[in-house]
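quick q for whoever's on today - can somebody do inverse folding on this one?? i tried earlier but teh output was garbage lol. tokens:
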């Protein structure tokens, strides 16, 4: 029986583990991770102590954007398995008390989706073209893009088709934006949500949740004009108030299930507008990426926690915390690089580590051990917070970003399109090391679709399982201990008299102390339940978190 039947709002303080399916475990030894591979590791997930798995896209895809270019929303990519494999995975997770959240990508489909192929064949003015955003080009013969907008991955956001019309793609060329003013598009996503809910999926992560609805009219504004418009819910392109009409319809779908299905919005919007997505009437929860953008710094962490607990309370939802995901440099690596500084504005993504990646990992010099130590401290801090924590596969091993990927092996469209020298996100998507040796470190029998560096063997699951001081052991113990915290969502700060030390209290006499600075900080060490690094003669050393029970 799924645990949701016992705990109606399981998601409020859940630990959700993100799996990037092509890089988790490869059951059929073709170099690409698959659904059966995940099922074969279900006991690993149970022993880790997570509450839910979030599966990044596993749908049929030509991989123009790591699977976020979906060719069929209601199927499994044949390279990853079958619907029967998916059903087995649901069963394997549920029987271990683990919920399953899947990624839904509604802003754009793949250009290989049947609808887009139909739109290309059907021509101008057709009903098939109206499911996407087709426009006439500018200039006398229409050979210029309709507007000078840039896609998120670099280059024009418009692409011309054979008959001369252009279509909008806010991401890769192979990801045409869908037209959410079209009732058929809306109805089809309801069918998709029901399809997966009926198969036992417990929740959905909504990709680019802030961009679905658009209000585009001739003449289209220039990118400069777009950028100057206020982000007040009426912007033609992003974070429009009317997107919540879509989510109200989805909410009715979610609530028609028992237990209700859940959703979390990936919405890169002004902080003050995040609660609109997190409300129960909308998606119910929204990501906050502020910790992921912060340095390992006491003042920044405290501000992020304060701000986001306030925002979550104003929406009636719980907060979400994220340190790593499939889009950013892993946090063990970020924290081993110089700080970005205190200019957290919470509205734009600050991608730590980009310069380091561009330099091939040489400049600035990465402090590997220091980064891992701070990452363990940050994770233990995060797991003590009220709300739900999202973990990204491999962080429980202390994995670093991989920089040594030859250009010929890179996959991310950012690498191919960015004009800034950004080499993209492949470095956090390299298949996991399960064993210290072997062709692909136990990922499959041999080979891996993104090359693993030799040092990956030092972070192997099997070695860390047998080592009580490993990062994996720390995660396992913390996730077990944290269950006592899940009844209440309160947090109270305790004054430490130090700018570098944060201390907060949770219910049941349970406390978290983190030393972000260099000087040791004295604590009552006999009450310590768990420490992210060894204590130093009863003091909390640099970059260390402890949980204390009084
Ligand atoms: C996903 C990215 C993806 C983009 C376009 C993002 O928010 O997390 O991995 O490239 O959406 O689908």
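ok took a stab at it. sequence:
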């Amino acid at each position: 029986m799924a645990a949701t039947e016992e705990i109606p709002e399981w998601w409020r303080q859940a630990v959700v583990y993100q799996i990037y399916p092509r890089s988790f475990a490869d059951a059929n030894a073709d170099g690409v991770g698959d659904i059966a591979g995940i099922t074969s590791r279900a006991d690993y997930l149970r022993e880790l102590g997570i509450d839910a798995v979030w599966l990044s896209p596993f749908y049929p895809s030509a991989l123009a954007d790591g699977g976020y270019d979906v060719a069929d929303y209601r199927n499994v990519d044949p390279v990853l398995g079958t619907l029967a494999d998916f059903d087995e995975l649901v069963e394997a997770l549920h029987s271990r008390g683990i919920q399953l959240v899947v990624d839904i990508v509604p802003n754009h489909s793949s250009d290989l989706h049947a609808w887009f192929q139909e739109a290309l064949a059907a021509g101008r003015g057709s009903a098939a073209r109206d499911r996407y955003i087709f426009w006439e080009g500018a200039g006398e013969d229409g050979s210029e893009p309709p507007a000078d907008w840039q896609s998120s991955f670099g280059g024009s956001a418009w692409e011309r088709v054979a008959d001369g019309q252009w279509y909008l793609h806010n991401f890769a060329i192979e990801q045409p934006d869908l037209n959410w003013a079209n009732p058929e598009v809306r109805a089809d996503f309801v069918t998709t949500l029901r399809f997966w809910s009926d198969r036992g999926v417990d929740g959905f992560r909504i990709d680019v949740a802030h961009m679905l609805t658009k209000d585009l009219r001739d003449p289209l504004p220039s990118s400069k004009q777009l950028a100057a418009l206020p982000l007040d819910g009426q912007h033609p392109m992003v974070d429009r108030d009317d997107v919540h009409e879509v989510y109200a319809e989805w909410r009715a779908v979610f609530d028609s299930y028992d237990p209700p299905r859940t959703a979390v919005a990936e919405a890169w919007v002004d902080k003050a507008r995040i609660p609109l997505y997190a409300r129960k009437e909308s998606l119910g929860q929204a990501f906050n990426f502020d910790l992921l953008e912060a340095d390992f710094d006491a003042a920044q962490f405290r501000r992020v926690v304060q701000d986001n607990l306030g925002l979550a309370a104003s929406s009636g939802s719980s907060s979400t915390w994220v340190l790593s995901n499939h889009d950013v440099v892993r946090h063990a690596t970020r924290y081993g690089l110089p700080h970005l500084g205190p200019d957290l504005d919470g509205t734009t993504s600050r991608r730590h580590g980009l310069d380091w990646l561009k330099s091939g990992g040489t400049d600035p010099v990465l402090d590997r051990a220091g980064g891992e130590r701070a990452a363990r401290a940050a994770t233990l801090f995060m797991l003590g917070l009220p709300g739900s924590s999202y973990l990204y596969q491999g962080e429980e091993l202390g994995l670093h970003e991989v920089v040594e990927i030859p250009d010929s092996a890179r996959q991310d469209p950012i690498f191919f399109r960015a004009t800034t020298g950004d080499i993209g996100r492949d470095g956090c998507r390299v298949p996991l090391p399960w064993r210290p040796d072997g062709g692909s470190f136990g990922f499959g029998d041999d080979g891996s679709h993104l090359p693993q560096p030799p040092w990956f063997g030092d972070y192997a699951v099997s070695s860390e399982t047998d080592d009580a001081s490993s990062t994996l052991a720390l995660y396992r113990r913390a996730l077990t201990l944290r269950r006592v915290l899940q009844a209440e969502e309160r947090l109270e700060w305790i004054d430490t008299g130090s700018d570098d030390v944060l201390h907060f209290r949770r219910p049941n006499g349970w406390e978290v102390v983190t030393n972000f600075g260099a000087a040791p900080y004295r604590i009552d060490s006999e009450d310590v339940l768990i420490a992210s690094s060894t204590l130093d003669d009863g003091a909390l050393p640099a970059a260390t978190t402890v949980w204390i029970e009084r």
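fwiw Confidence is low (pLDDT under 50) at residues 1-5. also The pocket of beta-D-glucopyranose is lined by residues 65-66, 68, 105, 171, 207-208, 266, 326-327 (CB under 6 Å). so keep that in mind when u check it
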